[in-house]
Amino acid sequence: MARRSFSRGVLALGAAGTLLIGAAAWWLAAGNDDGMRPLLEGGIRSGSLSTDYVIETALDDARRLELNAVNVPVAVNVADSRASRFELDEASLDKARRIIPMLHARGIRVLLEPYPWIADGSVAETAWNPSEPEAFFRHWQEDVLQPLVRELAAPLQVEAVVAASNLVHLESRSGDWIRLLKELKAQYGGLVTYKTNWWYTADWDEASLAAFRAKRDNPLWAEVDFISVAAYFELTDKMSPSSAELKAALRHAERHGRGQDVPAELEELAQRWGKPYFFGELGFPAREGAASEPWNSAPSDAPDAKLQARLFEAYRDAFRGRESFLGYSVFAIGEASPDKRYYPSEESAAVIRSW
Q1: What whole-number percentage of the chain has pLDDT above 70?
Q2: Measured in whole angstroms, how far is the alpha carbon of residue 31 from the centre of its chain?
Q3: Coil vs helix vs strand at 243
Q4: Which of 65, 130, 145, 291 is deepest in the core (most CB within 10 A)?
Q5: In sequence order, which residues have a C-beta less than 8 Å from that of residue 83 and are 6 or more positions away?
């Protein structure tokens, strides 16, 4: 697949239509040739900030991992898993307003993401199933995306906006997403993406195959510039598999005998829409068993920093150099407390720097 050039280098600011200069000036000033590359040319080495990130730690992590992009979240306060109304967190919005210019000054590109913070963080966004879907889409546009564009993305010349992430109970509402994405693109001149959650398939499970086909064929992908995926694919039940076993499991998943070929399905999704794909989240808890349920922060109590590194290595070797692959965002950086099990170990950092 041929790379597309960045076609929205000018950002529109609000209804007034004020035009702002694109990001090239930052990159030139920083003397960062790699950072000058538009996102759609690939080679994205990003890190996803924890919602409770510390600015100084985030900047140190970007340097330590040699990142050229950072995914900056802005928390959206949601009361519970059935809520259809919500609001941006003002403290999170203010912190993003402070860190984005600091990242740009270092030649680091920014992906801006509204992050659902449901029931004070006790409920995952994959469980969010609003009781009034029509109200959800209206409020997501008016109370989340429009303020993010008006207050951050346009004036701070953010390179890309993640319209939403992992909303599995709403993803099938293609018409609503298409209207929302079209309106977002009318207001914002940067790149737009949507992040879909990982999936599984098995030849013996027709429901899983049908679910993948529905995800692959969802018309919302026509409205994004690139496809983002939260890459928590289940690979093997082995507690501490070798590098060779992990690489083989990416092509033929051992877990539950599924035989899923992860790279092939991602390529199929990309080819279906002629759009490149990006791992909007790529992370593993530094624990034994992480290859079985990467989405689970506690697959076991046994630390295993080397397994975390081998998982990054397996993905690196499986996807590096693929024409339709844009890159990845390491989940998660910016806060290194002991409870942050996804925080990249020193062993993982070495692999990330090599990718």
Answers
A1: 90
A2: 27
A3: helix
A4: 291
A5: 118, 128, 130, 131
Q: Domains, the chain, ranges and CATH?
A: 11-353 (3.20.20.80)
Sign of the alpha-carbon dihedral angle for 298, 295, 45, 188: negative
Question: What does the pLDDT look like over 87-130, one tens digit per residue?
Answer: 999 999 999 999 999 999 999 999 999 999 999 999 999 999 99
Residue 114, token pair as written in the block? 């509204």
Amino acid letter, residue 154: A
pLDDT of residue 26: 32
Evaluate whether 194 touches 212 at the Cβ level (below 8 Å): no
Q: Is there a contact between 241 and 249 (Cβ–Cβ < 8 Å)?
A: yes
| Phi, psi of 171, deg, nearest 5 | -65, -30
Per DSSP, 151 falls in state: I
Q: What token pair was written down for 117?
A: 């913070």
Residue 165 contacts residue 229 (beta carbons within 8 Å): no
Who contacts 25 (Cβ-Cβ below 8 Å, separation ≥6)?
A: none
* Spatial separation of the C-alpha atoms in residues 187 and 12, rounded to whole Å: 6
* Beta bridge partners of residue 279, listed in sequence order: 229, 328
β-pairing, 191-197 with 160-165? parallel
